[in-house]
Design goal:
The structure is a homodimer of 117-residue chains. Chain A has a single domain, classed as Arc Repressor Mutant, subunit A (Orthogonal Bundle), CATH 1.10.10.10. The first copy, chain A, contains 5 helices and 2 strands; from the N terminus they run H-H-H-H-E-E-H. Chain A has a two-stranded antiparallel ribbon with strand order 1-2. In chain A, helix 2 crosses helix 4. The radius of gyration of chain A is 16 Å and the shape is elongated. With 117 residues, chain A is mainly α. At the A-B interface, helix 1, helix 2 and helix 5 of A face helix 1, helix 2 and helix 5 of B. The structure holds a DNA duplex (30 and 30 nucleotides).
DNA sequence: CGATAATGATACGGATCCGAAACGATCAGA
DNA sequence: TCTGATCGTTTCGGATCCGTATCATTATCG
């Protein structure tokens, strides 16, 4: 079930999708923000600041700031953990789910357009 | 010759490669910088500031700044066009070619590890 | 020559991000 | 209770980036 892709195809796919993301006018996320967003939407909850920091190998303030930014964009939301009020649970949103879905469709579409390369 | 990939696979690939890029410690490039870098290394030269700005749909200072940053990282270099000294020709470098090659290998490797998803 | 156009770089104010350190709030255990 | 650990946030100085506007240099053409 492994995906068969050649290096030149991989690069063209990577370039084209990034071009689309830049041109779509949506606030383009940094690599870190992208990794955080997709981790939240692909991995099993619950997600915490500390957990995300560990998975990404970055410090906690990086996560806090990324959540601030993506929260303003409506891509994620935060909620105190009622069982341990030190924790913050990061939650998905409708807008975030839609954005992730759009990204998936974009990658799929651009990969279909790849030639033999 | 189209690449068969499902949305969930696309997202897992996107996430994993971004995780790798963040963790590799290399200065992670923005979406714009990535698009610029790959355009320089995939499209036929010569590349100019103006041409890149048009292809990306951004303003010229964005390109100038990105070239400053990537120049410091050794990923690209600049050279005056001797036939029209208003132009600046953006050139590839050995370090840049290596970085692009590493990115390609990373994508290929991670795509091989995808399950049926 | 002189006027106009084109190119890439720079100045500017504002926004964002970084890592390190410190902080307040909360929990756990003696 | 109270001491220490844990959690997420905030602060700090410094760096980067943004878009707009402007700049110096160079080319083009009358």
């Amino acid at each position: 079930m492994a995906l068969e892709i050649r290096p030149s195809q991989a690069l063209r796919l990577w370039r084209q999708v990034h071009l689309d993301l830049v041109q779509d006018g949506d606030a383009d996320l940094s690599a870190r923000q992208t990794a955080i967003l997709l981790t939240i939407y692909l991995e099993l909850p619950p997600h915490t600041v500390r957990g995300l920091a560990q998975q990404l190998g970055v410090t906690k303030p990086v996560i806090t700031r990324a959540l601030d930014t993506m929260g303003k964009l409506g891509l994620v939301s935060r909620k105190r953990d009622d069982f341990d009020r030190r924790n913050v649970i990061i939650q998905r949103t409708v807008a975030g789910a839609l954005a992730v879905e759009r990204l998936a469709d974009l990658i799929v579409q651009r990969s279909r357009e790849l030639g033999a390369g």
